[in-house]
Amino acid sequence: MTKTRDENTEGQILNAAKSIFQSKGMDGARMQEIADKAGINKAMLHYYFRSKQLLFEAVFKNAFSLLAPQLNAILNDDSTIEDKIKNFTSNYISFIIKHPYLPNFIIQELNRNQDFILKIKDNKGFPNLEKFKKQVDEEANKGIIKPISGEQLFINILALNIFPFVAKPLVMAFANVSDKAYKQLMENRKTEVANFIINAIKHT
Amino acid sequence: MTKTRDENTEGQILNAAKSIFQSKGMDGARMQEIADKAGINKAMLHYYFRSKQLLFEAVFKNAFSLLAPQLNAILNDDSTIEDKIKNFTSNYISFIIKHPYLPNFIIQELNRNQDFILKIKDNKGFPNLEKFKKQVDEEANKGIIKPISGEQLFINILALNIFPFVAKPLVMAFANVSDKAYKQLMENRKTEVANFIINAIKHT
DNA sequence: ACATTTGTTAACCAAATGGTTAAACTAAAT
DNA sequence: ATTTAGTTTAACCATTTGGTTAACAAATGT
């Protein structure tokens, strides 16, 4: 049997690095802290990943590869726009609840270093909007949904699903709710967001 | 005549610090870089603001005080929900186009340090949702809009307006558009977003 | 059994970084 | 003219930080 990720050193490092990088970002993270969390000597980080930058990139690519398939699902399957929105919203919010730091981490680090996007963009499996756009146009032509540009609809879907997690502290302060109440709000959004979007675009 | 902000040293420091902090974050910013940008000696930063932390807080509060009034407008004036959404969306997107780093900066640093929110929350002028929530309930009862919780509608409005700026590099990569095309997308959103929200909530 | 490769550690290093100090400069007050 | 208070600078300092090294241990192959 092959060793699980937290049994071999490389995996321990990745786990620890993920945790530290995701909560403190590249600049705020300390190699020593990662080593401590992994329960190993700092030199091991460099033995396995050579530099902070490369360790970070390993963590980042890993994180991104969790996010991408979720998006491809909505973009490339064959269900109707309405079904896609329902499925995506529910699945995606469930997914982020399990990985709350993830969207913020990715967005934050992409803002810090635009070059990252290039390193991932040519990966196969990088989300592509073409099919989705065509489908939106078709359904609009058939009168199933109101006319809207595929890009704008896509941005709106992402925004409504992701933003509340990215801006959690801000929204919590404005709405003046506890952590528990916020969690409930997010739970409700699994269906509310889909209804909201569908109301916005369906033809009456 | 009183000296303008970039004529006196303190103002120069604040301008430089704002620029550096907003693009690199607290952890990524270097005091020397701020001093260089302000064209002064590093010791001056400490002379005027004592520490990096305090300089950062000055910049942060400043940034936040730009954002808050925009929100209060939608929350506390007396127009209908529909008008509020229209006005807010158009104004807010125009505002962010002028200060593109701002939302990301605030969100990012609030995620890094939850304590910040407490330091600002008791400021007068901190946005409060109560009136808005009441109004949403009223219009829902009158049948003007579909039933929706005030919090959820507020989150949706923020999400649709702010997210595209916060996640710009990510969305640009997914939608595969140039900087110029992205700018145009944002320009279009000034009206599109309002229509989208209103379609989602208005009673038919 | 022995040699070689792989994994691990403690000690170390140079550079960077936030912060301090003491002296010098400036301009207004006496 | 001299004092005084505020402003500015260059040099300095202690600590932190990413990264290296050399020695040691544990597998692995022969």
Structure summary:
The structure is a homodimer of 204-residue chains. Chain A has helices at residues 9-28, 31-38, 42-49, 52-76, 81-98, 102-112, 115-121, 130-141, 150-166, 168-175, 179-201. With 204 residues, chain A is an all-alpha fold.
Range of helix content of chain A: over 70%
Global Rg of chain A? 20 Å
The greatest interface between two protein chains, and residues involved on each side, is: A-B, 58 and 57 residues
State the CATH superfamily name of the largest domain in chain A: Tetracycline Repressor, domain 2
The CATH architecture of the largest domain in chain A can be named as Orthogonal Bundle
Shape of chain A: globular
The structure class of chain A reads mainly alpha
| Ends apart, CA distance between termini of chain A | 58 Å
Query: Number of domains in the coordinates of chain A?
Result: 2
Protein name (chains A, B): TetR/AcrR family transcriptional regulator
DNA-binding region (chains A, B): 30-49
InterPro entries (chains A, B): Homeodomain-like_sf, HTH-type_TetR-like_transc_reg, HTH_TetR, Tet_transcr_reg_TetR-rel_C_sf
Keywords (chains A, B): DNA-binding
Plain-language structure description:
2 copies of one chain form a homodimer. Chain A is mainly α and 204 residues long. Chain A has 2 domains: 50 residues, Orthogonal Bundle (Arc Repressor Mutant, subunit A), CATH 1.10.10.60; 148 residues, Tetracycline Repressor, domain 2. The first copy, chain A, is globular, with a radius of gyration of 20 Å. The relative contact order of chain A is 0.10. The mean pLDDT of chain A is 93. The interface between A and B is large, with 58 and 57 residues. The structure holds a DNA duplex (30 and 30 nucleotides).
